[in-house]
Amino acid sequence: MNIKDKISVMIATHIVNATSNPYLNNDMIVKTIRSSYDKMGLNGVTYYVYIDATMKRLYPDLYTQYREKLLERFNEELSDIKIELLEETRELLRGNWEHMIENCPTPYFLFLEHDWEFTESIPTEKILSKMDENDNFSYIRFPYTKLGPGQPEHWDKTWGGYFEKDEEINDLPLTKIAFYSGNPHITKIKKCKDFYLPLHKKYWSNKTKGTSHLEKELADIAMMHVKTYGKKEAHNMWGCFLYGTWEGFNPVVKHLGDWCRKK
Fold first, then answer.
1. How would you write the pLDDT of the chain (263 residues) with one tens digit per residue?
2. Do residues 146 and 250 touch, judged by C-beta distance below 8 A?
3. What is the pLDDT of residue 100?
4. Nearest to residue 185, comparing CAs of 250, 263, 243?
5. Fewer CB within 10 A of the terminal residue: the chain, N end or C end?
6. Phi, psi for 232 (deg, rounded to 5)
7. Full-prediction pTM beyond 0.70?
8. What's the pLDDT at 220?
9. From residue 182, how far is each of 70, 82, 186, 213 by CA, in Å?
10. Do 134 and 141 touch, CB atoms closer than 8 A?
């Protein structure tokens, strides 16, 4: 099976200013798409670019300007990459995440907000092969901070979650973690449909006062499972891993933005 038939990419933008200035010169999104395409070997893979539909409802003129500018940049700088700009989408990051899960045409998808740059090559096909082989390997996150002694503790560990070198899946540097984060990651669509999305809907659907704290909401659920079932069993349920170990492993992505847009 070609890689284009195994994985799709979701790009979440959610960065039209809600006052007077749409982010027309978004250089970050071009770097995000180009670097992931090149460093991950995503030849022929389709990128689905989402714009938060809240802006379309509240500021239709600004939304139109931003949409047209994005299309112009894609045509001029990324014409070799298959990109679909989704216009009839849902509101907030959460809504677009749900839309991608429900409509993704491939068994895996790469989740990227618009402000990440891949700095190291990723063995994407090997990762997908190992995820195929292992039922509980359902999610892999790519680090943007250095792992190792003397480095800041990762939130998986700080919050009391799971953070342990994996010894079972061969040929990949992996750390077992507790949380599903919105940082760059690959995940299984089936796991999303059967587990992550139903859990999120059960506990958090329409309960966050219009905000979009997807990863914080999922982290609360994961910690509930850690306390209820223990770290090992909770990890088996969630199937979340970090690409790399703390033995001097360097980050593979760089964060370009400041929350959702560069000031």
1. 799 999 999 998 865 555 555 567 778 899 999 999 999 999 999 999 998 777 778 778 888 888 898 999 999 999 999 999 987 667 777 888 999 999 999 999 999 998 899 999 999 999 999 999 999 999 999 998 877 655 655 666 666 667 788 889 989 999 898 888 889 999 999 999 999 999 988 887 655 545 556 788 888 899 899 999 998 999 999 999 999 987 777 899 999 875 454 44
2. yes
3. 95
4. 243
5. C
6. -65, -45
7. yes
8. 86
9. 22, 23, 10, 9
10. no
Token couple for 101: 């899960």
Give the single-character DSSP code of 6: T
- The tokens of 52 are what? 């938060």
Q: Which helix (H) or strand (E) holds 11?
A: strand 7-12
List Cβ neighbours of 119 (8 Å cut-off, separation of 6 or more).
Answer: 35, 39, 251, 252, 253, 254
- How deeply is 126 buried, as exposed, middle or buried, from its count of CB atoms within 10 A (0-12, 13-18, 19+)? exposed
SS (H, E, C) 97-154: HHHHHHHCCCCEEEEEECCEEECCCCCHHHHHHHHHHCCCCCEEECCCCCCCCCCCCC
CATH of span 3-255:
3.90.550
Alpha helices in the chain, H assignment, sequence order:
27-39, 53-58, 60-77, 92-103, 124-133, 155-158, 189-191, 197-204, 214-229, 231-238
Taking CA atoms, 37 is separated from 93, 135, 172, in Å, by 22, 26, 20
Strands, sheet with 185-188, edge to edge from the N-terminal-most edge strand:
82-86, 46-50, 7-12, 108-113, 185-188, 139-141, 240-243, 174-177, 163-165
Q: For the chain, give every domain's residue range.
A: 3-255
